[in-house]
Design a protein that fits this description.
The complex is a heterodimer of chains A (311) and B (360).
Chain A: H1 19-32, H2 34-57, H3 60-75, H4 77-93, H5 97-128, H6 130-145, H7 148-159, H8 163-187, H9 191-199, H10 204-233, H11 235-238, H12 246-256, H13 259-284, H14 299-310
Chain B: E1 8-19, H1 23-33, H2 37-44, E2 47-58, E3 62-66, H3 73-80, E4 88-93, E5 96-97, H4 103-112, E6 114-117, H5 129-133, H6 135-139, H7 144-157, H8 173-185, E7 191-195, H9 203-220, E8 223-228, H10 231-237, E9 240-245, E10 248-253, H11 255-260, H12 265-272, H13 282-285, E11 287-288, H14 289-296, E12 306-307, H15 313-321, E13 327-331, E14 334-339, H16 341-348, H17 354-359
Parallel strand pairs in B: 3-8, 3-9, 6-7, 7-8, 12-13
Antiparallel strand pairs in B: 1-2, 1-4, 4-5, 9-10, 11-14, 13-14
Helix pairs in contact in B: 7-8, 15-16
The chains are: A mainly alpha (311), B alpha/beta (360).
Chain lengths: 311, 360
């Protein structure tokens, strides 16, 4: 390599701070700390495989029924019918589509659960603390805009290929809206209601759990909905690091220029997205908007309770 | 300043509140150099919320603070339960300095000693009426049965029986504020803080709620600090009234004091439009019988209508309508004064002859 002359007009090409090389050090660090990383990886892998096995162990028709019931409870009769139609369509896409969809669902559920566990406290903190919000905002922007391939490689170096890396990559991309919307929801709570709670002697914890979180719930659920949607949009990219499921179908079809197979995978993802979106949106709506007072008074639970009450 | 022989339940001494980043500096400058509101704003970029407020409220008394928006009355009332920390000065509740309480003690005082009603109701939309009303007892950890009983009693007191399972948005504005009132009295506190509770309601409902509040208050004998921007309301409800302007208490006195002896032009302006019919008593406008007879010669009082010194101008008007004669004011059966038609008209205009009052 020829020695480059430093020039004041173009200082950038001659100065090398070695950022790229130092990022390479991640690999060595990962190898050195294998003993720490492995057990954590195994724990999460077991969780994902557990959910996957459970979802695939249930016969498709039973699973379909369960999902329809959940949809009925969360979003009412119309959503339930839509979910039923969608799930039948998904099953008939191809003979193995159902199994692949369940695997994808397992990855999404794991990612969303972890997002919720990480995102909710961070979002509450951001909602309460202006400085923390100011600090975390550029981090969230980075997480959402940085191309997935950039962090795909370091994550694989750290953890290796497989489900766990897939979930981590998904979390990086899908977490920001949950944090943002939780913060927004907490900030959107009517300050006079919070003041009233203080005036009647509530402590900060009671204000959070009895006033702020319940009032922020619709916004937080909108964040969960966004997180689910973004998780689904990551499944194709995650399949590049050997995550199974519908995304892998699409990836393999791309490699073989197999339009039919790609369509099956793609449609499967879309249908799953529609189903999950309608169910979570239904949860975000309060029961009172649909004409009953408490959640247990509507849907299948309400029907069962009414039947039990009659006898 | 309190009524005779009453203990001070709320005792506010030289309370100052200055908002802004340099509040402490500004406070020192005010104490040393006696800066005014405008100097503080220009030199320190701070806003004076309350300046040097001193007052006491006796047990069972309803103390109204009247002022226009921005006069600092809502800021002042929030010092009583320390929703706002004062920059300087002290505030005692039943002898206890509120600003010395620990966070824990403060929460206890807020939940058990003080009930607060807000202008915008501030009910929790995700809780039923019952859950709203029992909130202060819930955060204190009282048993479900106990708080339900107390809450239902409070709901009953504001005539909302049968609405306990509804949500606030299913209620009209007036009913919502009654829930607010029920919430404030549910834990049976000794002090009520009312921050313009009826201002957001239409006049008819406001009047109903004022009546409801007054009857409840007479029954429960709660010490009340009542904020309003409506002098009519203050006069109707308050035992004593404080007029607030630019964060300072301009005048403190009984409704009659304020109306007949405004301390300055500002108060006089307010009082100008107030009907004096119910406020001024016959004793204030009568002239002694001797003075009357000196001017008019001896008269036969037996055919004239009779009134008591405590009778209001309204009563005197009713008596005077039926006759051409002046009204004779009697105490213990003896005539002590005469109210002529002219004196009555002057009284209605609020012109009370100080000479006569002094001679009384």
């Amino acid at each position: 390599m020829a020695e480059t002359q430093f020039s004041i007009l173009d200082p950038f090409s001659s100065v090398d701070l070695g950022l790229a090389q130092s990022a390479d050090g991640v690999k060595q660090w990962a190898i050195d700390n294998r003993g720490v990383i492995q057990p954590i990886k195994n724990f999460f892998n077991d969780m994902i495989v557990g959910i996957d096995t459970a979802l695939n162990a249930v016969p498709p028709m039973i699973m379909l029924l369960i999902m329809v019931l959940i949809a009925w409870q969360a979003g009412g009769r119309r959503v339930a019918i839509l979910v039923a139609v969608c799930m039948f369509a998904l099953g008939f896409l191809s003979p193995n589509a159902w199994g692949l969809a369940m695997t994808t669902l397992a990855i999404v559920i794991s990612a969303v659960i972890l997002c919720f566990i990480i995102g909710l406290p961070l979002g509450i903190l951001a909602g309460k603390n202006d400085r923390f919000e100011a600090g975390i905002r550029p981090v969230l922007d980075t997480m959402q805009t940085i191309p997935a391939f950039v962090y795909l490689v370091p994550v694989v170096m750290l953890i290796g290929i497989g489900n766990v890396s897939g979930v981590i990559v998904t979390i990086i991309f899908a977490l920001p809206p949950l944090i943002r919307l939780t913060s927004l929801g907490i900030r959107g709570v009517n300050p006079s209601v919070v003041e009233a709670a203080r005036a009647f002697g509530a402590n900060p914890r009671q204000i959070l759990f009895k006033v702020e979180l319940p009032l922020a719930t619709p916004t937080i659920l909108a964040g969960v909905n966004q997180t689910i949607m973004l998780s689904l949009s990551m499944v194709v990219i995650a399949s590049m690091i050997s995550v199974k499921g519908l995304g892998n179908e699409v990836l393999r079809a791309m490699g073989r220029l197999d339009a039919g197979k790609a369509l099956v995978g793609g449609l499967g993802i879309v249908i799953l997205a529609v189903v999950l979106d309608r169910i979570t949106q239904g949860m975000g709506q309060s029961g009172r908007e649909r004409g009953h007072r408490h959640w247990w008074q509507g849907g299948p639970v309400g029907a069962v309770l009414r039947l039990a009450g009659k006898n | 300043m309190t009524g005779a022989g009453q203990e001070a339940v709320i005792d506010c001494r030289n309370l100052w509140k200055i908002f802004g980043r340099r509040a402490d500096e500004a406070m020192k400058a005010v104490q040393k150099q006696g800066l005014g509101k405008i100097e503080v704003r220009d030199q320190f970029d701070c806003v004076v919320g309350v300046q040097d407020a001193t007052f006491t409220v006796g047990r069972g008394e309803i103390f109204c603070i009247m002022g226009l928006s921005g006069s600092g009355k809502s800021t002042l009332i929030r010092h009583v339960n320390r929703l706002i920390e004062p920059t300087s000065g002290q505030l005692f509740i039943e002898g206890q300095d509120v600003n010395q309480l620990s966070a824990r003690q403060l929460r206890e005082v807020r939940a058990e000693k003080i009930g607060m009603v807000f202008q915008n109701m501030a009910l929790m939309p995700h809780r039923t009426v019952l859950e709203n009303v029992s909130f202060s007892q819930e955060v204190r950890g009282h048993s479900l049965r106990e708080r339900r009983e107390n809450a239902l009693r409070a709901i009953d007191a504001v005539d909302l029986n049968g609405w306990d399972q509804k949500y606030p948005d299913e209620l009209s504005g007036g009913m919502q504020q009654r829930v607010g009132l029920a919430r404030a009295i549910a834990a049976d506190p000794s002090i009520l803080l009312m921050d313009e509770p009826f201002s957001a309601l239409d006049p008819l409902i406001r009047r109903q709620l004022q009546d409801k509040f007054m009857s409840l208050s007479a029954e429960m004998k709660k010490t009340t600090l009542f904020i309003t921007h409506d002098l009519d309301e203050a006069i109707r409800i308050g035992h004593r009234i404080a007029i607030m302007k630019d964060g300072a208490l301009v005048q403190v006195g009984t409704p009659e004091d304020i109306v007949t002896n405004p301390a300055d032009d500002y108060v006089a302006d307010f009082v100008a439009g107030i009907s004096k019919l119910e406020l001024i008593s016959a004793g204030k406008i009568m002239e002694p019988v001797a003075v009357f007879e000196k001017r008019e010669g001896p008269v036969d009082l037996s055919t004239w209508p009779e009134a008591h010194p405590d009778h209001s101008l309204d009563d005197l008007v009713n008596l005077s309508i039926a006759t051409q004669h002046p009204v004779v004011v009697k105490a213990n059966g003896h005539p002590i004064g005469i109210v002529t038609k002219n004196a009555l008209l002057r009284g209605i205009k609020g012109e009370v002859d100080v000479m006569n009052t002094a001679a009384e």
